[in-house]
Amino acid sequence: MQIIAKRALREFWLRHPAAETPLKLWYARAARARWLRPSDLRAQFGSTVDFVAGNRAIFDIGGNKYRLIVKIDYSVSLVLIRFIGLHSAYDRIDPTTI
């Protein structure tokens, strides 16, 4: 998958160093993947991924300390990072519109 906005991940882990390793691991796994449908993500990430409207996926990162929301265009293998934050920041947003 082509992942847009790795910079957002890097900026986040610079502010939250404990997030660096799990975000790099997620990035490496996602970059090697070829997701054709949501069930492909579920097969790869199990219960650490949920889905909301608009082809968005929500990942629990770092033992659920962080949340990552991406928008996926399965037809062109594109992943757009829409949000990365602490779980408390995630609780204040609407993942269906971000």
Using brief descriptors, characterize the structure shown.
single chain; 31% strand; alpha+beta; 4 helices; 5 strands; YaeB-like fold; 98 residues; five-stranded mixed beta sheet
Overview of this protein structure:
- With 98 residues, the protein is of the alpha+beta class.
- It has one domain: 2-Layer Sandwich (YaeB-like fold).
- Helices cover 36% and strands 31% of the residues.
- The chain contains 4 helices and 5 strands, in the order E-H-H-H-E-E-E-E-H.
- It has helices at residues 6-15, 20-32, 38-45, 87-90; strands spanning 2-4, 49-52, 56-61, 66-73, 78-86.
- The chain has a 5-stranded mixed beta sheet.
- It is globular.
Computed Rg: 12 Å
Oligomeric state as shown: single chain
Helix count equals 4
Overall strand count: 5
- Binned, the helix content reads 25-40%
CATH class: Alpha Beta
End-to-end gap: 21 Å
Low-confidence stretches: none
On the 0 to 100 scale, the average pLDDT is 94
**CATH level-3 fold name:** YaeB-like fold
Could you give the order of the helices and strands?
EHHHEEEEH
Widest sheet, order of strands? 1-5-4-3-2
**Tell me about the biggest sheet?**
5 strands, mixed
